[in-house]
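Continuing the batch. This is chain 6 of the set; chains 1 through 5 are on the previous pages. Same settings as before, nothing changed between runs. Recording input and output for traceability.
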Amino acid sequence: MIDDELALLRAHRNNIGRYQRLLKTELTEFERRFIERRLSEERSAIERLSASTFPLVLKTPNRAIGNATALLTASGQG
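Output for chain 6:
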């Protein structure tokens, strides 16, 4: 099951790469809009699939981020 989901993630990633390469070519406005829409759909599909395949999300408490920022700022001024 996980192999199938990883294969789908790879397919979406490959599609995104292909669409990004296409956007660097000369396209009509209609073609560009179509590819941008498909690119957005592929990114959304990756987000949904990633969230369902890897549901564990580690979040850093905001105060820890603030403390780290303060430490970095203080050490940069020394």
